[in-house]
Amino acid sequence: MRKVSIIIVSYNVRSYISHAIDSILKSDYNNFEIIVVDNNSYDGTCDHLKKKYKTIDVISNGTNVGFGKAVNQGAKHANGEYLFVLNPDTIIEEDTISKLIKFISMNKNIGVVGPKILNADGSLQLSCKRSFPTLKVALPKILGLDKIFPNSQWMGKYNLTYLDPSKNHTVDAISGSCMMISSSVFKKIGGFDEQFFMFGEDIDICLRIWKANFEVHYFSETKIVHYKGESVKTAPYDSRQAFYDSMDIFVDKHYSSTLSLVTRALISFGIRLNKFLASFNEKKSLFFSLFMDFSIISGSFSLAVYFRFSNFNPILDSHGLVPIVYVALWLLVYSYLQLYSRYILSYSRALIGTVVGFLLAVLFTYFFNQFAYSRLVIINASTMIALFLPGWRIFTHYLISRGYFRSVNHSKSLLFARKTIVLGSDSEGIRIAESILNRFDSGLDLIGYIDKNYPKESNSLPIPFLGKLMQARQLIYTHKINEIIFSSTSFSNKEILDFMDETRDLRLIYRMVPSEQDILLGKSNVEDIGGISFINIEYNFYQKLHKLSKRIFDIIISILFLIILFPIILSYIFFGRLVKIQFWGEAGIVINARIFKTKNKLIRDIPLLFDVLKGNISIVGSTLINSSENSPEILCKPGITGLERLKNVKLESETRKSAQHYYIQNQNLKLDVEIIIKTLLNG
Question: What residues have CB less than 8 Å from 429, skipping those under 6 apart?
Fold first, then answer.
């Protein structure tokens, strides 16, 4: 059995590299050594590896020397007949190594081979087979024609999309994220070119392998999953710039002597054009949000002017300057609230920004008469903005929760949680489900389990058992599932990757959880003082600004509901349906209140809105506990609704305590709005 040296280059991927190594250790091929070359990680990767895996060789660099140089370092320590270069953010099948070894050893003309590579969503990673970036090959890609005509031999040449990914092929180049190469071939061509810091080194080595009269092959009979770009996320440099710098190095190295000055200029232009397009694509959510907000604000003012004057003359008379001033004012407010950076889809910030924009607009018209509109115009425009600006963000959250968008910058939502199933109902599957259920900010709505066979004690499972694996596709359709979480102890890596490959058309999100990983509740940050690490825990609920905004919010919402529900209140009072109750408030105080005598919870609690106005309770808070019960531990003011009501938890349970702790740590108007809406929807 030929020995294989597995070389992994790591940089701040502690949570991912354990997945990769664990998948290797499950391999059906056992004659291998693992060499990890760490490029000066600061997340504790080296200590973690040395502690958890006693048999692997860890090389620690004092600086980040780049991917190619690090692989060369590992190759110098390698004793294997073959080198298996593997990224740390990958998972391989149990038979990946054995099948690649068998394939490459069958033909001595093969210099390097790479497997089928899947993205985290189950789709094919196009870089696993591609052509060399000549002008003829790159032009259709730059123009986007490869996406329109993927099956065309000319248009789809760059990523060879016209080739059947389920069959083996001889190709120009494969991805450096996973490649099996003969040690002798690696030494013969001089290893990776170290002038490529990151990106481009895989295309370069494949070209040099071809020039050395060896072949490059794409092998479809085994798969890996690649969580692409995890190291790049923490890199202290511009990864996009690094990629296009590598392309320049590649062109200068291989084409400078063979191409004309004009052709080289065209290639250089193409590289920079592609860089610009990539930058634009990365920021498309920002541009889209700006476009939507601009359109809504300008459209709202135009309609408000028309409703007031039955024409657009005030706008035309100012040559459009006046509405531009107001639009700019609103956009500046939203920009200050980071709606175009960190919180693109925050509907709570959009609503707050609208209120602030309205107040500033009123002040603006008072001090600058030349830009003054009728107060009615400003009120009507602000009303429409308050409706539509958060509205399109709420609708986008809904689409995201249904799996239509994934790349948009958005926060986890209690209201629009992604429907999720767990594959595997063993002890690990139970651990995963219980951990998620205890997290109120997971953004996941656990629907149930799917497994190979029916569990022996399905009644003891924390979530329902939906059906067997053979019914998975039907169950995904029926329950409108967006996300799959795998129990790595119930399914082999091969089974997981096969499932991802078979369901790639369903637009699912796939996740695995390291067996040793714990999920922490709440938010915290670590601060080092005098060599001692302190954990600082923030409690939003106790901050003066949050308390003030919550009180104002309670008053406004209570008045609004009381006005809307006045006919119901009047009818119930007239028929004498009021019932006295007593419940615990803060600091052991007993609160006397009234509710309506009805089975409908929403109608029953309407009279409590008067107690909200008095300040005795909040709309959102802790559970109302009857005063006949023992005095409980109440961390925040009781509320008509809250996380405890949504979760339907029992008194004095651990879930109830965790719900209270989560709420006081994370309380904000967005969370309150989501809880209220979800309460109304649940009835």
Answer: 422, 423, 449, 451, 487, 489, 490
For residues 298 and 372, membership in a common domain is answered with: yes
Give the integer Cα–Cα distance in Å for 141 and 122: 23
Provide DSSP, 114-139: EEEEE-TTS-B-GGGSB----HHHHH
Q: Is 141 helix (H, G, I), strand (E, B) or coil?
A: helix
Per-residue model confidence as pLDDT tens digits over 629-639: 776 777 788 88
* 250 burial via Cβ count (<10 Å: 0-12, 13-18, 19+): buried
Separation CA 170–CA 216 (nearest Å):
6
On whether residue 537 sits in a domain, the answer given is no
Task: Give the β-pairing of 4-10 and 82-86.
Answer: parallel
Instruction: Find the range with the poorest average confidence among 79-83, 361-365, 366-370, 491-495.
Output: 366-370
Sorted by sequence, the CB contacts under 8 Å of residue 648 that are 6+ apart come out as: none
Query: Angle at CA 547, nearest 5°, toward 543 and 550?
Result: 140
Phi first, then psi: give them for residue 35, nearest 5 degrees: -120, 115
Structure tokens at 248: 């320049």
Cα 39 to Cα 49: distance, rounded to the nearest angstrom: 14
- CB proximity list for 424: less than 8 A, separation 6 or greater: 449, 451, 486, 487, 489, 490, 491
Q: Which domain holds residue 230?
A: 4-129+165-236
Verify that 209 and 88 share a domain, yes or no: yes
Place of tokens 């028309």: 306
Note whether residue 159 is domain-resident.
Answer: no
Residue 440 lies in a domain: yes
Judge if 626 and 661 occupy the same domain: yes
Structure tokens at 334: 């939203």
What does the pLDDT read at residue 319?
65
Look at residue 378 and tell me if it is in a domain. Answer: yes
Q: How many domains does the chain have?
A: 4
